[in-house]
Amino acid sequence: xxxxxxxxxxxxxxxxxxxxxxxxxxxxxxxxxxxxxxxxxxxxxxxxxxxxxxxxxxxxxxxxxxxxxxxxxxxxxxxxxxxxxxxxxxxxxxxxxxxxxxx
Length: 103
Prior knowledge:
It comes from Roseovarius gahaiensis. InterPro entries: DUF1467. Keywords: Membrane, Transmembrane, Transmembrane helix. This is DUF1467 family protein. Helix 1 packs across helix 3. By secondary structure, the protein is mainly alpha-helical. It has three helices and two strands. The chain has one domain (about 5-80). It is elongated, with a radius of gyration of 23 Å. It starts with a helix and ends in a 30-residue tail after the last helix.
């Protein structure tokens, strides 16, 4: 895995995790009884985004090490998820069903 791939993997995991973490521990205006006129009672009063970003980063580091380690070790490869056998034989990059591209 290249450095760019590792960074992209980290960013994808971070944003997916952040979207999961955002709804936890939100103090809404309705819960606190301080509803600002013109806003919904479910609007957040205290969202704790900085704390959630740090929690997300910690969770992401653990997941990134596990997923990145699995990719680098070769335990699971792209050929393992080729359900329809469209990648061809393992040694040939140019294999196709209709014939060989090297001809």
